[in-house]
Amino acid sequence: MKVLRTDRGGEYTSNAFFEFCKTQKIKHQLTASYSPQQNDIPQRKNRTIVEMARSMLNYRHLPKIFWAEAIFCAACILNMRPTISVPNMTPEEEWSGQKPDVAALRVFRCVANFHVPVEKRKKFDVKGEKCIFIGYSDRTKGYKLFKQLQVQFLSVAMSSSLNMNHGNGRNQKKMQLGFPIDGTAEQGDHQSHDTLQNSSNNSSSSHIDASLSPRNTSACPGQAVVTRTSSQARVLSARLQDYVMTSADDVSNEKLVNFSLFTDCDPFHFVEAS
User: In this structure, are strands 128-136 and 143-146 parallel, antiparallel, or unpaired?
Assistant: First the structure.
């Protein structure tokens, strides 16, 4: 190499780089300040590589932290494809004198099954692990794979408010339900649904049993009705504190029965419907 023309980036204007060019007897030329068009060929190639890497990341839905792997993978592909700058051969063949092995190319971010060597596993450990391909290694004859060790589910909170007017009072009930956006949580939703349904059924049964106590029944006509009143104060169960408890007489109220017609949206869960 006799002459090297670069822009005025910090990696090219350091004293260490100047000394390296001097010892190698390379003439170092710099473009004018803020004039990248004077170094058009490298700048155009840099843009080509960056555009390829951006497209690979966006199309394969990878975060930007993999930009270095995408850049290196794009450069490998460009070195193994024909170009008008090197007639009838690829850049890699012009550099090394050997035709590149295109059979080693793989699709960026494809699923790769990694075989765990026997030295790296115990007797009952799995022999293979599922990873994703993120590029080629420049230090050994192999591929670069990525294994996600921790999976994080993003949860969103659904809030539902239930407003009810009863007489002069106003009771309001609010619930917040969280669920993962991943479809694998469907089984957990069913279990929560069954738990909530059983809890609601138990509370309804307790309420009905209390309302059907023999306070208005008599053994014979004409006898006085004896009402048994417990001296122990009844404490509402903790699991029923989020529910609006009504008596059997209130159910006959038309406003209370039809209040669900004025809700803003359809219920998503059993608790909202109840």
Answer: antiparallel
Contact present, 60 and 73 (Cβ < 8 Å):
no
CA angle 124, 125, 130 (to 5 degrees): 145
Residues 120 and 50 in one domain: yes
Considering its fold, how many domains does the chain have in total? 2
Q: 131 and 161: one domain?
A: no
**Model confidence over 49-93: pLDDT tens digits?**
999 999 999 999 999 999 999 999 999 999 999 988 898 899 999
Q: Are 182 and 155 in contact (CB under 8 A)?
A: no
pTM of this prediction?
0.49
Comparing C-alpha atoms, which of 77, 86, 29 is closest to residue 51?
77
Letter string b/e over residues 196-212, b meaning 16 or more CB atoms within 10 A of that residue's CB: eeebbeebeeebeeeee
> Are 83 and 114 within one domain?
yes
One-letter amino acid for residue 65 of the chain: I
Name the residue among 143, 57, 138, 51 with its Cα closest to residue 106: 143
Q: CA 128 from chain center: how many Å?
A: 24
Q: Where in the sequence is the domain holding 58, given as residue range(s)?
A: 35-146
Give the CA distances from residue 233 to residues 191, 229, 230, 236, 273, in Å, rounded to whole numbers and listed in that order: 35, 10, 8, 10, 31
110 inside domain = yes
Contacts of 95 (CB under 8 A, 6+ apart): 79
Strands 128-136 and 169-180: unpaired
Structural contact between residues 1 and 27, judged by C-beta atoms closer than 8 angstroms: no
Cβ density class 142-161: b for 16+ within 10 Å, e for less = eebbeeeeeeeeeeeeeebe
Tell whether 229 is covered by a domain. Answer: no
Tens-digit pLDDT profile for residues 161-203? 444 444 444 444 443 333 333 334 344 444 444 444 444 444 4
